[in-house]
# Entry
Amino acid sequence: MRAFLASSIGVTCAAVLVLPSAVPAGAAPDTRTVPAESAEPVDVPGSTQSLPMRTLPAPSDRATDEPTRAAAAPEQGLPEREVRPFSLVGVVWDDANTELHGSVQVRTRATGTGEWSQWQDLETHNAEHGADPGTAERESGAVRGSTAPLWVGDSDGVAVRVRPEAPDPQDRTATAVPLPGGLRLELVDPGKDPQQAPATDAGTEEDVQAAAGTQATGDGRTSSLAPSVLPALGKAESEVRYEAEAGLVPGARPYIGPRPSIVTRKGWGADEKLRERKFVYTSKVKAAFIHHSATGNNYKCSQAASVLRGIYRYHVKSSGWRDIGYNFAVDKCGNIYEGRAGGVTKAVLGAHTLGFNTDSMGIAVLGTFTKSNPPAAAVNAVAKLTAWKLGLFGADPRGKATLVSGGGNKYKKGKKVKLNVISGHRDGFATECPGARLYKKLGSARSSSAKLQGR
# Structure
């Protein structure tokens, strides 16, 4: 899928957050950390195979059915090979500040049938996702350049090819742009789904509140009895429960939407040993950025937990991030999932909208909505989630918020920018995300969200 940088180079939104299966339908953020260790799910080990690429034969040596191309830098990749089982694939390289100018395609072999897929594109322009420039997460030394990951389902064979952009044939002075150094193919096995506790063993009300982030133990740890799902609350109960946290003036009318049901990290089986132990917070949540994952729409909501664990592992182990990038995820069935750790009521600093992670939250809707309409259930879920979460911070979903850019391709670092409280990723960064069709639905989401708040 194509998009555009300020320099007219395409980018898209695809940090691929996806849905779960085990459940039904001017701040200085990097200095505000809290030591933490969340409850572990039943053992759901996963793994990552990291395969270095090599130079492939020149196009003239390739099969005759492949298109001819203008002269370019050498291609890299790997021929068809058998590998250990995996379900998600991506490509990374050494320097996060280097852009991959070219295309990345993979073929995979389905486990069981032995059938090979056609060549599938990976989104190469993924730099608009990640921590802001100059933050501790970005400058950790562990961050790598990466494509968006692609969910391919149970597979045991793979081939990959990375083709650089060919020089402009009309420009005789143009030179081939080399591929980034250290290209590696990442194959992620998300592990097995967690075993769910019986409904009668969901933990105490204190455990539910701790998981929601409204309470914490003295050392910042969460309860080992944290539930897999935070149950939905009515508007009146939500207002009573969260008025104090929202810091409302006594007698002021609360505009807090009813808390929707939220699948916790325990619910989708997050291995808390993968991420950094500390939570990192920003000052408040003034705006919500809506994304699409750009991973396609041919998935079952029952696969969500596996996909989330795969993306989580890819973000942390392959891309070098401190945790999964988004604060929340929404699937096409309207289920809502907790993303980055730290408490769903808290202003957790994410890595979702480069330049505007401070004082915001990121919500990823699973799917590709460039030419396909997003399901109504997903748009409604965005409205429900924002009505509640933005209400905790006194934000009007139909209003505007002023954010300070941390640096990007649309706004220079330090520039104050007035944005919609519910914005699309493209509003803060020159990208196609969240897809034209989903972006058109944001007006409806704003109205529904405000109505749920009682405005």
